[in-house]
Amino acid sequence: MTSSAASFPSDHKRRNGWLPSNQDDLETWLEGHQARVDARRDGAPLHPVITEFQALIDSDPVVRLYLTEMIDQVPRNSKYRTRHLKSVDQLLLLIDEVLTTAPEFSDGGMVTTPLTAILDWTMGTPAGFAAYRDPRINDMFRKVLQAWGEFLSSPASRYVITNSPQGWKSDAAVRAVGIGDYQHDPADEYWGFASWNDFFTRRLTDVSRPVAEADDDSVIVSSCESTPYRISTGVQRRDRFWIKSQPYSLADILANDPAVDDFVGGTVYQAFLSALNYHRWHSPVAGTVVRAFVEPGTYFSEADSEGADAVEPQNSESYLAHVSARAIILIQADNPAIGLVAVVAVGMIEVSSCILDGAVTPGAHLAKGAELGYFQFGGSTECLIFRPGAINSFALQALPQPQNPKATAVQVRSHLATATS
């Protein structure tokens, strides 16, 4: 087991597949989105949540300053020559257009998180760092995301589950998603899904992703379908998670839960979920639920300590585990050598709705691999936190693979680590 493993060098939104890796693809989507806004700007009323956002901006000079400056501060060199954001009013119109659309499939140029596509460059400016941490602005984006989530959970959002080139039933999408691994009705027009969110939180079939060594309590399994990002040992109770190296700060990740001291000096395993991954979480061990809760947090904040310039913050993955909205589940493993385990499912950008399974309540006993909950509309990153001495070794597939953006994801419920004897 390694005490520290290098993380990937590229922007976490692109590395995870939430935005295209090619900037030209992103610019093409933004141009098309602006054209859609222009085509329907015929006096159509704004969504009520956008009207509320506009009222906040008009009434609060600090909010207005932050939002105006984060647009103005995007550099004007050739790299950022296409300035798709020019004003706060235009920003609100672009967001308004998103609230009645569902993400389409695009082979190679996917924009799975359109709000992030709109906000991307502003997130890395000095004013943007402040804006997305400001409670007033963060609360407003929470309301925007809730409004969009209501649409994505409605039957009207199923229009993208079609055979068109941009549809999720297209041949390319079927291959990318691996729909055969999931419960669906091939004969139904929408594969039997009630909404976009229903499709995106699809369940595995009974034979997909079997639990590794189900009867061996020394084998710990992967909680998510995710790509290893970092393994850290000797983690501290409190640390400066916002600095360049982004060390883990247990008190902050676990929202000052009383169990923090159990994990001091222990191990954090972190992995990220890509856009097409399975987005439900499962218990890494057999054990009893001690506590399970959702901790509110930020939605579009990034670490300002990374990157070559102000609008390219790199590798915010660890930072997000401390500040983003997240579900925290504490499980007392049946194996006393493992003891208490923390599962932290971290929402990111649009992907911020962490839904706990109704059966995950204090005192409930879970089989290894049992479902814990899911990310509504996608996923972000996960952390598994272990006590000192609990882990003997990590499986080879679980070790981070630096400099490899195409690393294979560790399958959910597969062998992740082996406990100390």
Give the total of beta strands: 13
Largest sheet: 7 strands, antiparallel
N-to-C series of helices and strands: HHHHHHHHHHEEHHEEEHEEEEEEEE
The helix/strand class is alpha+beta
Strand order of the largest sheet: 2-3-11-7-6-5-9
Query: What Rg is obtained from the alpha carbons, in whole angstroms?
Result: 21 Å
What is the topology?
Blueprint: H1 12-15, H2 23-40, H3 48-59, H4 61-72, H5 88-98, H6 114-119, H7 126-131, H8 135-152, H9 171-177, H10 196-200, E1 219-221, E2 227-233, H11 250-253, H12 260-263, E3 267-272, E4 280-282, E5 287-295, H13 317-323, E6 326-333, E7 340-346, E8 353-356, E9 365-366, E10 371-376, E11 381-386, E12 391-394, E13 415-419
Antiparallel strand pairs: 1-13, 2-3, 3-11, 4-10, 5-6, 5-9, 6-7, 7-11, 8-10, 12-13
Helix pairs in contact: 3-4, 3-8
Could you characterize what this model shows?
It holds the Pfam family PS_Dcarbxylase. Keywords: Decarboxylase, Lyase, Pyruvate, Zymogen. GO terms for molecular function: phosphatidylserine decarboxylase activity. It comes from Subtercola boreus. InterPro entries: PS_Dcarbxylase, PsiD-like. The chain has a seven-stranded antiparallel β-sheet, with helices on one face. Strands 1-13-12 form a three-stranded antiparallel β-sheet, with no helix packed on it. Helix 3 (48-59) packs across helix 4 (61-72). Mean pLDDT is 86; it is low at 1-10 and 306-314. The chain is 27% helix and 17% strand. The radius of gyration is 21 Å and the shape is globular. The protein has helices spanning 12-15, 23-40, 48-59, 61-72, 88-98, 114-119, 126-131, 135-152, 171-177, 196-200, 250-253, 260-263, 317-323; strands spanning 219-221, 227-233, 267-272, 280-282, 287-295, 326-333, 340-346, 353-356, 365-366, 371-376, 381-386, 391-394, 415-419. It is of the alpha+beta class and 421 residues long. It folds into two domains: 13-158, no CATH class; 210-419, no CATH class. The chain has 13 helices and 13 strands.
